[in-house]
Amino acid sequence: MENTQIVIRNLKKSYGKGNGKNEVLKGINLNIHPGQIIGYIGPNGAGKSTTVKILCGILPDFEGEVTIFGKDLKKESLEIKKHIGYVPETGALYDLLTPREYLSFIGTLYGLDKDKVESRAGNLLSFFGMEKHTDQRMDTFSKGMKQKILIMAGIINNPDIIFLDEPLSGLDANAVLLVKDLLIRMAKDGKTIFYCSHLMDVVEKISDRIILINNGNVVADGTFNELKTEKADTLEMLFAQLTGRQDNEISTENLFNGFHEN
Amino acid sequence: MVQFALFFVRLFKIPIQWLGVDYPQFEILIRIKLTMDFRSSPTGFQTSGMKKRSFLYQLFTFSMFGLLFGIAAFSVGDLLLSLTIFFSIIMVSLTMTLLSEFTTVLFDQRDNYILLPRPVNHRTLLLLRLVHIQFYMGFIALALSLATGIMVAIKYKGIIILIYFIAVGLSTWITLIFTTFIYLMISKVVNGERFKDFISYTQIVIAIIIFGSYQLIPRLLDAGVLKNVSLSIHWWTYFLPPVWLAALVKLSLFTDNTTSILLLSSLAVVVPVSGAFFLVKSLSKGFGNILSEGSSESITPLRRGKMRERFTDGIKKFFCVSELEKAGWNFAEATTRRDRKFKQSVYPYFGIMIVFAIVILKPDLKNLAVSLQEKNEFSKYLFMVIVGFSGNAAIIQLPYTDTPEAAWIYKALPLKGYGHLMTGAIKAILFRFFIPVYLLLTVPSMLLWGSSVLPQVALGCLGNTMIILLVIIFQRRELPFTRVREMQQKGTNSLFAIFSMILMFIIGGIVYGTSFLPGWITVLICGLVAGIIVLIFRFIRKSWISA
Fold first, then answer.
1. CA A232 to CA B49: how far, in whole Å?
2. Is B506 contained in some domain?
């Protein structure tokens, strides 16, 4: 417990009220240690993004206890936010700004001084091969370019924990390799990487620990080697075994038969 | 312009810090927000250009109104009363503008993923929104008060001019704080989607009130009475912000200042300052919760009664000639039912057309029913046609959407033409926005003028339908939900309004004509039904080839 960076106890979250109430998280319990790369996976609607939004302080209204760096998230979220980074799944950017302006803006919100922000922004833009676009407005950027800026904004404050929600979406193969290397290096530096993705092969390769949630509950938690079985020797198969239908082939067959009949 | 705004913000650096706001963060946030406001996007060039032009146009309109308000207010003999009337008008106008146009800025949840994960406190976020709105409201208040300011300067000279403009600034701040306070109180009772619905419906009501008050209040006021009246101070006067501001301006004349004037003036300064403290210090957390609710994934299942579903399915089966037409109907029906912005653009017209009918017919407002009953034949038919015309706004708004990128679906579909989809959507609009209006119109028409007017109501309805379908054909309007809402040309709308008015008079005249030739009404109704079904719908169905 001493070396635990994030402690989650009985985390619950519901949306809506009465008949329309949708219980997304049904009591998550986790201990997360520094330097770990956590692959947080699950089917669509399982509660991955909701967990991340809670841990980043976007959703302050939840049940249960969350402690990050030994601080209560409900009471000291501002202090916690100074040391975390977040890469959202949606392309939320002020895209009328240039990368330089945007990164400088985000850096200033973290209290970084002008020189530090400029130097970090310059390094990040050069790391992602975007120096040429430093002063170009982002509304002209492709999806992948915007995704790179989101990743840069997520780490510009040199966070101790970084939450990433589908960070590889829209990136080309080279950029994917670059991000994977970056995450591994950050973890070696003692930073915690909390990573949501549907790309099972990437999660399998880079994660020290895989947490699988389904219907708002943790259904598997451990290293890939601990979780894999004889029947499920890839993460994709394990995922299907624990969360999917076992009769995928039959379902597909039925669907196509239906198409042919009608 | 951004530097000018920042200069003002810096003047208040210390009080801003007292509020518990992180000042460096606040300044960078304001700078970024205003920088983005003043930047146009190359892809949406016309969009941003349109926004700027429409704001300048709005400022010009407000300054014209301001001139009228100034003249009206200064025709009152007593300075305190004239300024009270003036500040009341300013504050009402600002409240209306705030509710109708700036509420979305206050509760904008689009940048939740950018700002909420950063270490920015709720107080900074709330004050950011307030000051961002204050910047634009300040321009509007200045436009409204400029003419009166010049009159005050010419008449009184000296420090009063400065105090007058400070009072104008305070009036916007008081309006902003009161409105936000009320919104936050309401958000404690209703939340989530219901709060958004509440805001939408408030905006719709406000739009009707704005139009109604600009049109009707001047007709109700008796200017002669106000000339020789003065404002006497009672205990309740201390609860009226316009009196505080008027007293503050009067105080700067240094003549006839009583303790009451001093007390009222001090309220003009104390209330906005302490209100800001209370709002930002104590209620900003509630504001933060409203913002974060926008990041939720609330799923409220859509429920429709089985009876209602069976009824609309039956209607669709009867009126639609193909499955594609039914699909067009379903698409238009579902979207218009759920799109808040569509509702905000269309629903006010139902109220506005009633006000418009009243303005055109000039009935005695104190005895509306009797007066309408006594109207001549042409007026009553015109009244029915005008009110029935309100559904046309729905047809006008049909091509607009916030997600035009989704229109790729039309291009991807293996269709030769889009006629069936178009006619299906038009039928959905007619069913949702025309038929109910005419059904509702039938009841008061029968009560006022008896059942003999029913054929005329039907003729008016068919005439309106025919006209709107002709407009669709001639204007070659776009397919449903394919164009950016902000691209809507204001000029086109004004042109359409004039065109519609001419058409309404023509239809009204035709309906009126049938009261002399009763036999013709059946012929006309049959002709219009045939025309609508055969000529128009078949024409649209066959000719609508491109998306």
1. 58
2. yes
